[in-house]
Each structure stands twice: as C-alpha cells, then as structure tokens.
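User: Please look over both lines:
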Amino acid sequence: MSLDHPPTDPSDVATPAMARFLDLKAEHAGYILFYRMGDFYEMFFDDAVKAAEALDIALTKRGTYQGKDIPLCGVPVHAAEAYLERLIRKGFRVAICEQMEDPAEAKKRGAKAVVRREVVRLVTPGTLTEESLLQPNQSNTLVSLGRAGGELALATAEMSAGHFRVASLSAGELSMELARLSPSELIVPDSLFADPDMAATLNTLGAALTVLPAIKFDSAASERALKNFYGVTELAGFGSFARAEISAAGALIGYLELTQKGKLPALSPLSHDGVSAYMAIDAATRRNLELMQTLSGERRGSFLSAVDRTVTAAGARLLAARLAAPLTDVAAISHRQEAVAQFFDSRDATDDLRAKLRSAPDIARAVARLSVQRGGPRDLACLRDGIVAARESRELLQEARGEAGEALTALLEGLVAVSALAAKLTHLLVPEPPFYARDGGFIRAGAHAALDDIRSLRDESRRVIAQLESRYRDETGTPLKIKHNGVLGYFIEVTPQHADKLMTTGYRHRQTMGGAVRFSTDELSSLANRISQAGDQALALEKQLFDEMAADALAAAQPLSRVAEALAVLDVASSLADLARTKNYVRPKVDDSKAFALKRARHPVVEAALLASH
C-alpha cells in the first residue's frame, strides 16, 4: 500500500494518531518514519513492510485503513540506534518523530486528545554523528555540488569533525574529486541531470546521491544562509568565494538546517580547498591502486592497511585523507617529512608520545554530538580526557620540526583557550560518566553543595526519617513511629492511649483507626515533600549542570578543534616514523624535476602479503 499520495483528508477514515502519521509521512516522502508511540518507534504501511524486511523483525498489523489492514512493525526506543545503523547501511533514510509533550499534558485537553508529535531529525548517510553509527577511522563526508554561471564547485563538510571547505573545479575534474572525497552523501540540484554526461557521473554515487530542487542552490539565498549560520553581515572575513562556491556551501548549510531541524553542528569557518594542491587520480586508477580498499571492497590488503600505525581515530582519518589526496607541492611534502624525521630521530620521545595518544578520545566527534544536542556526559568526559592527553603530549615534546612544530604551536594555543573548560569538567565530572544525561549520576560527589544536599536527602531518606522519629519521641515522651503509605504519604502513628498528648502539643490530627491514631507536622510534611521531589530535583540540577558544561564546550569549539587536529597530525607523523623504523624505510628525496628513480624498492602491500604467507 503506497503512501506517496495519501488521501486529502485521512482523518475521515483514520484515528487521530494515524491521521498525524499520514500528515508527517506526506511531508517526508522518501523517508522511513520512526513514529514514537510510548517506548517504541513504530512504522506503518509501506514503511513497516520495508523496515521489517531490512531489519529482519516481525511484521504485524494494527487497525484498518481504507478497508485494508495496516501493516505495522516497531523497534524499542532504547535500542533504536542499532536499527538505525542497519537501515542507513542499506541505503534508507529515516525521519525521527518524537512525542513533544507528556501524555498527561495531552489529556488535559480532553480524554481523546492526541499527544503532539513532530519530526525532530532526518537521518541521512552524510549527517550522522552518533558514535555507534560511524566508523571511528573513517571520515563521514557530506558533499554539495553547486553550479553558477557555468562554473562548478564542491563544498565538503564533516559534521562529525566540524570541517567545512569549498573548492571550484571543472566538469572534467568532478569525477576525480568525487573519487577522492568518497562522500557518504552528495547533494545536487536536479537541474544538473539535464546534461547526460553529468547525470552519468552523478548516478555512479547510487544510494549516496540526494537530489534537491535547483532553487535550494540559488547563490543569493545560499549567501544569506551562510551569513545567518556564522552570524555575520559579510563573508569577506572568510575569504573571496565564487558564486558557484557560495551556491554549494549555502545549499549544504540549508540541507543541514532541513535534516537537523535547527540543531546545527559546530563547523569551522568556511575555507578554500584547492583541487590543484592534490595529485589528480581518476576513479579507475584509484580503484586499481587499492589505496583504501581492495577490489573486493575490503580494507585488509589495501595500501592503507599496510601502513596505518596510528593510535587515535582522528589520526587514522587524517592518514586516510592524505593517502586519498597526495600532495603536489614539494615544499608542503618536505614540511610533512620533517615532522616524520623529528620522531624518527627521537625514538624514546616517539614511544612516550604514542603511549599518551592512545588514551586520547575523539575530541572532534564529541564536540559534534554536543553541538546538535545528541551528546551526553560521556562526551564531556571525552573532552576532559582529551585535553589531559593533549597537555601531557605537549609536555613530552618541547620542540619539533616541520609540521610537528606547527602542531605543537596549535596545541599550546588551543590548550590555553580551553584551560577554564578543562578545570570545570575535571571538577564536576565523575571518572566514568553514563552515556545519557537523563540517567544522572555524572556529577562528582562533593563538587556541588546544593546537589550533594539533594542527593543526601534522596539517598538517606530512611536515616533522615529515623532521626526525626527519634527527636519526636524525645520531645513528646511517647513511643510514636513515622510510617508511610501510598495514600497518606509519611505520617506519625501512636496508640490511642498516647494520642491525647500529641493532640495538645501542636501535632496535626490526620486519621483515627481502630488501634492507632495518625498525625503530621509541618516539618514532616515539608520533609516528605522534599523526599518525594529529591530524585527529580537531583536529575534536574544535574541536567542544568550538563547544559552549562555543554554550552561552555561549544563556546570553545574552535580551540578544541585546533587541539584535535594537532593531536591527529602528531599521531600521523609519529606513526609513520614508527613504521619507517620498524620496516627500515628511508626518506625519499622529492623535488620539482620529472626524474623518477627507485633503488632496492619494496612494496608495503606485497611485502605484507609475502610475510603473511610464510
């Protein structure tokens, strides 16, 4: 049963909840709609049929529509990420629809009122941020192709790392650039498909291709989108950009606004990424060179797998990006070589650095999750531990040459800028926080006095009640007891023969039973109320502290990015030095001539295969 064209008035034949589903589905055609129903995301009609098959889960039915059964399947909310991953890997896009109010609030509008629901996010291959949905050592790149005045440009952003770049290119360079970038998702205007050659190139992207109306790439609208995103009145501070570059970059920002529903990621200032700076490698050659993966699609056996000795996820992604885009500038190549040489000549320092880097979490992706409000206390701990690892790494390296020297300078500048954030995170967070802020328990005992008081009341309510009971006994001289039930809450209970004494001492009578009389006091009522609210108050205060820390982290997004990038550079340089030392590799001499000479050369992949066969 297709819902591409639902009835104009589905509420005539559908329940209010199903009518809302149909409305949202019509607004998000092409997406599988995860429709929140209590503790489950439920899917209906064609969505249910497709999802049940893709996820290998039960397909059932609920109710009827237009005289036919409504197919249904569902996944638990707490396990949704695992199912999302499988759907995205199989080429589906998913719209996440949440309940925007408590069911109790909805009931205030009437017994038959429906809980308000809205789509809060569109999950697409290029807009993933969740750790469970991403490969740690692989970039997840969203690319936008813009055209203006006959010129082309590609904008690239990695939400999970905060990178944002744009480059002009010719039609002949497009295929090679797409092969180099290997985008997780490419957004393009539908107008480009009027050109058969262009259409053939774009269609090779398959499930990674997203076609949008050409109006989304209007250069004037794109310029406004970029200015709004960065909060500036002019883009001149970022550089000079061609109309096609503005078109591509602005359309990418517009797509992020669409998919993230206003929760935009923290991206670096837009910068140029010159195509001419890299060696041109066509798609067929790149594939046959098996740089990133073998012809069978496996990483094992590729050139990358043979030379990758990085110890951080960010370092692994940087190495892969460099192998995908070999430099053509001799000075830049020499600059990188100097960094490797620095570590090659200092074995002890290299080993110590690599040991420190192994403990460095993925700072960039933690910031990305926080920026779109999908982060948690564990991400804040990543920042804390990453800053510590960065500080200790810098202390190991007092000086360095080439690119490593620049990385040390960037590391110092970044660490100075985030020192206050580091101190706050270290003071407030427990060593191993939970994933979700809603779970609580991530603020360290003794770090926040008000929270400690609330927790004490919550966790030690029995002791507090026992102390109050003992004091009341001493004050009244009666063997009273403080008890609790679901109707009265906390109350004071005495036998009838002691009731008169309490009646005359300010205790408030509540209930007389056959063998007992029950009382209360303002103090007990206040304490009971505080105890019942303490759990909620503790969670609310922790959530407030989480929001404050997350805001501080986002305010420091740029220096955190510099720290993350510097650590990745140091990881790549030190790992290549370790590789060279272990494999007895030598530094090649690179110049501007066309001479090419190899002496006693060995191929890393062939050598690894020969060693594995013996």
